[in-house]
């Protein structure tokens, strides 16, 4: 009975995740996070379909969990085309179309960029690929729960998600794998043949339940969250962009309001973070926090190494308050004045 109750909880969470992206519950495969979901989708599909072609397409602005998969596949004999984003960080459908070849078997692009917050038109790209023989994988770690996603109408074949970007627990994620027509991927973790043979391992019931509940809350509150965070972001940017030398990376592109990437001309991120010590800000993505190299995303949109070193990513969320926004503006304004005096 205890096992049946646990299974029922897992299947309820599977339904909650599937509902958020308009999928069938049988199309949801549990993983340890979006990194594993990306690995399973990209490597699993490429290795299972290598006899059909060895050309793959992605972009220079992808998350490291995607780029490192393609780098590994290059070592396995695959050829990869890395699309360059425009100055705002967006990948166009036309650039995907120009890169397609007869032997292209997989296109993998993120929905929302994790450093810039800019949105790729996944629906347009999906429509372009509908008539092609290649698979379309989308990294939706930053968009699930923040933007409306319909995997069927957007012609997405595989989609990676994680819980912690949607206020759920760390260490759990999911991969949507299209069921009809059936999509075959090679398992990377072998064992008891769990998750319909795609991902073996005992399921972390407590984390999965948390992910399901967080996705259910996101579905119910998405519009309200978007309106609130948009207002907070506008309030923040309207004041911060008045400061001399501060500019917005990705400006002009459609973007989510919860991610902002600011450039501070003439200053380096490490010094900025010292004077902004009361703010939780980052000079890049969490996965590259130990690296001294400038952001590969900022370099991909044309920033020099020097300019890329002077950028900070600032995020807003469901629990951010107007008082915190006003305090952040004050800290940044005072910090820039202090650095200029020094």
TrEMBL record:
<dbReference type="InterPro" id="IPR015424">
    <property type="entry name" value="PyrdxlP-dep_Trfase"/>
</dbReference>
<protein>
    <recommendedName>
        <fullName>cysteine desulfurase</fullName>
        <ecNumber>2.8.1.7</ecNumber>
    </recommendedName>
</protein>
<feature type="domain" description="Aminotransferase class V">
    <location>
        <begin position="2"/>
        <end position="327"/>
    </location>
</feature>
<dbReference type="InterPro" id="IPR020578">
    <property type="entry name" value="Aminotrans_V_PyrdxlP_BS"/>
</dbReference>
<comment type="similarity">
    <text>Belongs to the class-V pyridoxal-phosphate-dependent aminotransferase family. NifS/IscS subfamily.</text>
</comment>
<dbReference type="InterPro" id="IPR016454">
    <property type="entry name" value="Cysteine_dSase"/>
</dbReference>
<keyword id="KW-0408">Iron</keyword>
<keyword id="KW-0808">Transferase</keyword>
<keyword id="KW-0411">Iron-sulfur</keyword>
<dbReference type="InterPro" id="IPR015421">
    <property type="entry name" value="PyrdxlP-dep_Trfase_major"/>
</dbReference>
<keyword id="KW-0663">Pyridoxal phosphate</keyword>
<keyword id="KW-0479">Metal-binding</keyword>
<dbReference type="InterPro" id="IPR000192">
    <property type="entry name" value="Aminotrans_V_dom"/>
</dbReference>
<dbReference type="Pfam" id="PF00266">
    <property type="entry name" value="Aminotran_5"/>
</dbReference>
<dbReference type="InterPro" id="IPR015422">
    <property type="entry name" value="PyrdxlP-dep_Trfase_small"/>
</dbReference>
């Amino acid at each position: 009975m205890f096992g049946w109750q646990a299974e029922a909880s897992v299947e309820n969470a599977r339904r909650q995740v599937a509902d958020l992206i308009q999928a069938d519950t049988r199309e949801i495969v549990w993983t340890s996070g979006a990194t594993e979901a990306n690995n399973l989708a990209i490597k699993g599909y490429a290795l299972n379909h290598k006899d059909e072609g060895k050309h793959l397409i992605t972009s220079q602005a992808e998350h490291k969990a995607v780029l490192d998969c393609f780098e590994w596949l290059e070592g396995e004999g695959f050829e990869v085309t890395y699309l360059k984003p425009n100055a705002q960080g967006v990948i166009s459908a036309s650039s995907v179309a120009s890169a397609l070849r007869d032997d292209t078997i997989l296109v993998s692009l993120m929905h929302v960029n994790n450093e810039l917050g800019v949105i790729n038109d996944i629906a347009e790209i999906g429509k372009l690929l509908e008539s092609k023989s290649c698979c379309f994988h989308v990294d939706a770690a930053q968009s699930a729960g923040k933007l409306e996603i319909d995997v069927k109408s957007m012609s997405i074949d595989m989609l990676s998600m994680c819980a912690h970007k949607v206020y759920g627990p760390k260490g759990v994620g999911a991969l949507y794998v299209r069921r009809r027509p059936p999509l075959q991927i090679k398992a990377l973790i072998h064992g008891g043949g769990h998750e319909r043979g795609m991902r073996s391992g005992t399921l972390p019931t407590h984390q999965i339940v948390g992910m399901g509940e967080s996705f259910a809350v996101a579905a119910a509150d998405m519009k309200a969250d978007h309106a609130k965070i948009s207002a907070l972001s506008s309030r923040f940017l309207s004041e911060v962009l008045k400061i001399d030398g501060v500019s917005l990376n990705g400006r002009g592109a459609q973007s989510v309001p919860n991610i902002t990437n600011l450039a501070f001309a003439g200053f380096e991120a490490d010094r900025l973070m010292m004077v902004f010590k009361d703010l939780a800000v980052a000079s890049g993505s969490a996965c590259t926090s130990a690296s001294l190299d400038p952001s590969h995303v900022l370099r991909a949109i044309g920033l020099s190494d020097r300019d890329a070193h002077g950028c900070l990513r600032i995020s807003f969320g469901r629990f951010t308050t107007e008082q915190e926004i006003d305090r952040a503006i004050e800290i940044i304004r005072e910090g820039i004045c202090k650095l200029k005096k020094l």
